[in-house]
Amino acid sequence: MNGFLTITRLTLREAARRRVLLAGLIGACAFLLLYATGFHFVGREAAREGLQNELQRRLVLNLYTMVGLYAANFLSVLSAVLLPIDTLSGEIASGVLQTIAAKPVRRSGIVLGKWFGYWLVCAGYLLLTAGGVLAIARFLHGFAPPGVPAGLSLMLLEVTCLVSLSIAGGTRLSTVTNGVVAFGLYGLAFLGGWIEQVASMTGNVAARNIGTVTSLVIPTESLWQLAAHLMQPRIIAELHVTPFSMGAVPSPAMVVWAAAWAAALLLLAVRGFARRPL
């Protein structure tokens, strides 16, 4: 336990030393400033034109809020893949880990400590950006989408999956190869998710099955789709009038599968690093 906490503390200190935390904070503030400016003018224009009813007003506000959450989710995905991508492979190549592993610290503690340290950084970044989007919507126009706790929890699980994927890849692959594999799998999940949605709307069973299988291979896109569905008013989600209205809503079983998927990857990372010669 002491080794785990020590590695977590060193990982956070390393993130601060490399100015990762500062860069993330500046980037998040710039993102939120741009979003708030755009949201202000969108809301003002909508008020000037005079929306005919409450449903129309909520449709516009919800759409713009979902655009901001989609951007926050994408930025968090990039952080979850890129931040830990060289923490094991890079330090193995530089010889840093040989020094750490020679000390009385178990290898499992090294992997778990690094995973937890980067998970804290990525979770904080997600809460800052997504929470900022929700706060701006509330402050500027008094709008709050439904299902926020469940939606944010699913987005956090998506980040957890990708941090686990990046850490697991680092135990066996070089930094560049690990990045190519992680982004490649995320791209497959993104494409598979859209194939499933389009197939659901057109009634193409074969294409929908392809999308479902892709979601089982890497469930990240399904988590975002379910989060987006839960954070929209029910009537808007059922009318399918926005790009975030899902034709096929992922089931709760996919959430259980995603959690097991992330845990299995973390276990593979621990076992892979334990057997790897340094």
Describe this structure in words.
This protein is mainly alpha-helical and 278 residues long. The chain is built from twelve helices and no strands. The protein has helices at residues 2-17, 20-49, 54-82, 89-94, 96-101, 107-141, 148-170, 175-202, 205-217, 220-230, 234-239, 252-275. The two termini are 23 Å apart. The mean pLDDT is 86.
Q: Could you name the ranges where pLDDT drops below 50 across 5 or more consecutive residues?
A: none
Q: What structural class do the secondary elements suggest?
A: mainly alpha
Integer average pLDDT: 86
Fraction in helix:
over 70%
**Strand element count:** 0
Order of helices and strands: HHHHHHHHHHHH
Sum this structure up briefly.
Helices cover 82% and strands 0% of the residues. The chain contains 12 helices and no strands.
Main traits of this protein?
mainly alpha; 12 helices; 82% helix
Topology summary:
Layout: H1 2-17, H2 20-49, H3 54-82, H4 89-94, H5 96-101, H6 107-141, H7 148-170, H8 175-202, H9 205-217, H10 220-230, H11 234-239, H12 252-275
Helix pairs in contact: 1-6, 2-3, 2-6, 3-6, 3-7, 6-7, 6-12, 7-8, 7-10, 7-12, 8-9, 8-10
